[in-house]
Amino acid sequence: MKKIIICLSMFMLMFLGSANDVSMCCQIDLQVKITDPSKPYNPIGRTSVAIPTIYIMGCDLYFEAQCDDCTLQIVNKDGNVEYSTVIPANTTCLALPSYLSGEYELQIIRGQFCFYGNIEL
């Protein structure tokens, strides 16, 4: 009986600890735009574009859904790209360079769509 109580107590502590970690992450509010409006847009079906859910904690980005082979760009206030990378397949967490500091626009480019939102590092 004592073992069961101890195991349940440890499980609850682990659960509460992970809940606190998640609460420290902030979800990035993303918008969507077409990267090149001059190109014709031919939607398939009537479904809307699925906007990825991304969280940030410090310099780490956490992806709720995969963004395989999407391009991630960090753009400064002047519109210059300070950091760019292709997100590898099956990535759930991506660390941004520590030299980035301040307010930026995060861009995830998937095909002709650009998902963008403001972040502070």
Protein model, in words:
It is a single chain. With 121 residues, this protein is an alpha+beta fold. Helix content is 18%, strand content 36%. The strands form two sheets. The chain has a five-stranded antiparallel sheet, with no helix packed on it. It has a four-stranded antiparallel sheet with strand order 1-3-4-7, with no helix packed on it. Strand 3 and strand 4 form a beta hairpin. It starts with a helix and ends with a strand. The model is unreliable at 5-22 (pLDDT under 50).
Summarize the structure.
The chain has 121 residues and is an alpha+beta fold. The protein has one helix and nine strands. β8 and β9 form a beta hairpin.
Strand and helix map with partners:
Elements: H1 2-23, E1 26-27, E2 31-34, E3 54-57, E4 60-63, E5 71-75, E6 81-86, E7 93-95, E8 103-110, E9 113-120
Antiparallel strand pairs: 1-3, 2-9, 3-4, 4-7, 5-6, 5-8, 8-9
Taken as a percent bin, the fraction of beta residues is 35-45%
Dominant shape: globular
Mean pLDDT over the residues:
82
Q: For the largest beta sheet, what order do the strands appear in spatially?
A: 2-9-8-5-6
How many β-strand runs?
Answer: 9
- For the CA atoms, what is the radius of gyration? 19 Å
Amount of helix? 10-25%
SSE run: HEEEEEEEEE
Characterize the main sheet: 5 strands, antiparallel
Which class of secondary structure composition applies to the elements?
Answer: alpha+beta
Could you give the distance between the termini? Answer: 48 Å
Poorly predicted regions: 5-22
Per DSSP, the total helix count is 1
